[in-house]
Amino acid sequence: MIVTVFLLSVSLLVGLIFLGAYIWSVRSGQFDDDYSPAHRIFFDDLSKPFKSKK
Amino acid sequence: MSNSRTEQQARCYHCGEICDSHKRDIGAKSFCCNGCRSVYLLLNEHELNDYYCLNERPGATMKTVQPEKFRFLDDASITAGLLEFSNGKQAQVTFYLPQIHCSSCLWLLEHLAQLHPGIISSRVLFSDKELSVTFKPDELSLRQLAELLTRIGYEPHITPGQVEPQERKGYSSRNAAYKLGITGFCFANIMLISFPEYLGLHRNESVALVTFFRLVSLGLSLPVVFYGAGEFFRNAFLSFRQRYINIDAPIALAISITFLRSVYEIAGGTGAGYLDSMSGIVFFMLLGRTLQNRTYSTLKFNRDYKSYFPVAVSRIKEAMEETIKIQDIQEKDVLLLRHQEIIPADGMVSKGKASVDYSFITGESQPEYLSAGDLVYAGGRIIGNAVEIVALRDFRQNSFTRLWNNKAFDRQQSDKETMTTVISKYFSLAVILIALAAFAYWQWHIPERSWNALTAVLIVACPCALLLTTTFTNGHMVAFFAAHGLFLRNAQVIGDMAKADHIAFDKTGTITEAEDSALLVSRMLLDVAEKESFLSVMSQSIHPLARIITAHYRYTGALIPEHIKEIPGKGMEAWLDDRYFRIGSRSFVYGEDSGRGQEQTEVYVAVDGIVKAHFLFEHHLKQGVPELLRRLAGYSLSMVSGDNSSSKAQMRSLFPEDTQLLFRQTPQQKLEHIQSLQASGKKAMMIGDGLNDAGALKQSNVGVSVVQHSFSFSPACDAILEGSRLSDLPAFLKMAKASQKLILYGFAYSIVFNIIGIGYAVSGHLSSLLAAILMPSSSLGIMLIAYAGTRWITGRRFAKYSGMLKADEDHLLA
């Protein structure tokens, strides 16, 4: 039955990796602002950088 | 009603406000004021027109912008506290911009570099309404940056507290996310590992494997108990120290007993315990709490008077103007105050003439006219010309900071007796009695089963169901309210709203518009020439009533009167075209005291001794106020105003007959009014807007602060209501009541499960499989009830009542 123990450990390990990824994403602030990234993606880039006057 | 209001309902292309007589047009686009117009021109010039394409009328009104406000940012000691980073070539600063509200704001603010070469980049943190800007300090000073933002309609909000270096706030929402993630992970894996137990596989397997499974789930349950459920233990401990039982106490008891019994079973090899159900419950409860406590971090509910004042003022010393921090104002300092600036300290006018608007402080609706020698009080707003005042007191000894010394402000936001705590108290008592009865019974018959029965009852009958209904229902309600312009300090406010039976209103700013008076022409016998002369006299005065009159007639001419004299508090007299004008109050124009009290704000005009015109000023009611008051028929009402009784007749006709109408109330008297209501057993809700209501808002059971825009200053309160949503108040109250009923229904539903569970538990036969079925299914059922119930409450049945739905549809169509 050692294979069950092994499989269980591996599945827990995989789960822990995802938990770690989740914690990292919270820590890096990805859940702090759920508005701007979703809208930022729609903005067209302005081709010209700074222009003083027409 | 002035014609300009009803005739043209043109809306400002920039901010969406209704344009009045001062409107300025460019092509087909209307603008309500010069400020809005210049924002448009500036953006147009820099090819940032997309701002107006993303959303309709995205701007903030530019009417209240103070020029010269950011002078203090030239002061190095102040800027040092604001800059997050600076190396001479580059600097970074984060501003709080309360005007941020839509994708247009996001777009414009992230394209700031387009407006000025000195700006390197800018980034918005939308949920906190913050903007970080990286810029080159040699090309653009911090003051210029703040002024640039102001020019495009995003005036940074810099409070005195922010300038002092301080720790940035901890992210409690992040903590909740960690907790939820870790508990959820452990819960799911414990469930997975427990599956063989449910299916009874362990009987065929080796003892070693079974023990391994159980030990792994025990290991996984440790973070659940000691990290995830930590806040329940902490709250329970706090409640014990304060000698009352909150809902967390029985939950903490149930969790610890479940855990201990599971450890005991696993250690003894007699069973798998109830770790799966326990971690499931903890996870669901944390989920509910998170939903309920999603706070609106951008709204400040605890603001005190300090954030109303500017960071710094100009002081004149030895004929030089310098900027000093507001805390450093001392007696006898000479301060220079410009248009729209707030008086930081009580003082005396030493030079200049202006008006002071005290509406926010006292509720007085008409600005007071000032000249040299007059006393001014802290908190007033200067309108018109710049004045110099001599401070009579230090900043800290202001007249109105005294209000904050009232004990109502010391009152800790103690846990009030909410419905939930009351229920949980009786519920816990009943559960403990049942558990003890079962224990006693088995002790009598089969003693070895008695501990089993006792713990099983406590495990299965945990009041977590009550917590779940409360948190999920409240969470949905809070989110719905916020989407409709009512922001609650916390979920408890819903319960307080449901209980309120008296509503006290403030007048100025709540029922009536603060700055806008309607002009009624009750008599007009002036001929054309006389009218022209009269208006030219009026245009010489900066008295607010004179301003209203000239605005009403859209007078732009400029005849210069030969002789003109203004008598403060009374009126003015002038000679023009060989005619003698006397304009002002009744007693001034008629030359005698009429004897009757001032019931009306009015202006008389006499030409050569004959009264030829009479103007009345009425307050503009806020939109929907008469209807609002009609719909609140089930409540007893009262009105407390700091204003004079000039609008008494108007208010009398507005409110139901037996309503108590109080005028000339000081902030202290307003607070006492609420106290006397509470002493007579009423649960009072106070609705106000200004600092003069601060005491009453704090004292009341529910203090609702009405704001024009969700970003303007509001005093400490329990809820913030957008001014345009005031007429929805009856619907909000109904929904609050309905949601409290829903909590009761959800709780009744969970009782059914509890009775089944307890039935098994007292018999001593609670298997972990049964517990694992009963607990999550009752939790899921409750979540469904809460969700469906709040959808129903906030749906058509109530919303149609308020026109709320209509507003939503308009919004969707727009």
Mind explaining what this structure looks like?
The complex is a heterodimer of chains A (54) and B (814). Chain A has 54 residues and is an all-alpha fold. Chain A contains two helices and no strands. Helix content of chain A is 57%, strand content 0%. The longest helix of chain A has 26 residues. By secondary structure, chain B is an alpha+beta fold. Chain B has 28 helices and 28 strands. Chain B has five domains: 51 residues, no CATH class; 95 residues, Alpha-Beta Plaits, CATH 3.30.70.100; 251 residues, no CATH class; 153 residues, Rossmann fold (3-Layer(aba) Sandwich); 108 residues, Calcium-transporting ATPase, cytoplasmic domain N. Chains A and B meet through helix 1 and helix 2 of A and helix 5, helix 8 and helix 9 of B.
Q: Please state the overall shape of chain A, judged from the principal axes of the Cα atoms.
A: rod-shaped
Distance between the termini of chain B: 28 Å
* Biggest sheet, spatial arrangement of strands of chain B: 16-28-27-26-17-24-25
Tell me, briefly, the overall form of chain B.
elongated
Uncertain ranges of chain A:
49-54
Indicate the proportion of strand residues of chain A: under 5%
> What amount of the residues of chain B lies in strands?
15-25%
Structural class of chain B: alpha+beta
**Alpha-carbon Rg of chain A, integer:** 22 Å
Number of strands of chain B: 28
Low-confidence stretches of chain B: 1-8, 165-171, 805-814
Rg measurement of chain B, Å: 33 Å
